[in-house]
Description:
This is IclR family transcriptional regulator. It is a single chain. The protein contains ten helices and seven strands. The protein has helices spanning 2-16, 22-29, 33-45, 61-73, 76-91, 133-140, 144-153, 167-180, 222-226, 229-244; strands at residues 49-51, 57-59, 94-101, 104-111, 183-186, 193-201, 207-216. A hairpin with a 5-residue loop joins strand 6 and strand 7 (207-216).
Amino acid sequence: MSQTVDRALSILPLLAAGPADLGQVADRLGVHKSTALRLLRTLHEHGMVYRQSDQRYRLGARLIALAQEAMENLDIREIAHPHLVRLNEQCGHTVHLAVYEEDEVLYIDKVESRYPVRMYSRIGKPVAITVAAVAKLLLADLPEAERRALADTLEYPLYTARSTPNAPAFLKELERVREQGWATDLGGHEESINCVAAPVRGADGRVVAAMSVSAPNVVVTTEELLALLPQVRRTADAISGEYSGRTTAKESV
């Protein structure tokens, strides 16, 4: 029974690469065509594969629907939290996780700094969208037309002398973030707070969340915080791997 299940499951990645005929499936599995046909018929009955008019097989709509449903029910916060805690234990600074929802970037998780100087950010609170490092990552991943349309609707409050002043400057910064794959907020929201952030990506490569490490400059210098960037990016990659199913929680530790 386990061998049958194993063979049936082995068909799915083959068809994910494109339609295949019975002979190709049999060759990939190393079985007779009659065995491959029996497996394909069973998968077809359950909507996991579909036989085209040219007699080749492709992935079925039911499998795609199940995958979509599973992705929608994944809790990125639950997956990310242990990684955020681990990073916080290693560096000691405040760690955030944020998502983009309904034209706002919201913090959905936070692990407090071990230092007495604390940040006033709160879970569920929108971030300063034009300056926050997590916001830059989430918005930089939007299609260009959507980025431009959004930039034109935003206000650009000058929180500090380093705040993003207008839409052209914001779009230029988003393009830079998009190219380099990480972001910073170096005193753009509060003069005394610096932040480095990295993206969390789903199976399709799109940014589904952003995580960051933030610290006041009385605790750590800008250069010292920027030196944590590789560690932040490794943590984001570990969350991405687990969220997308490329790795397990144990493998990403």
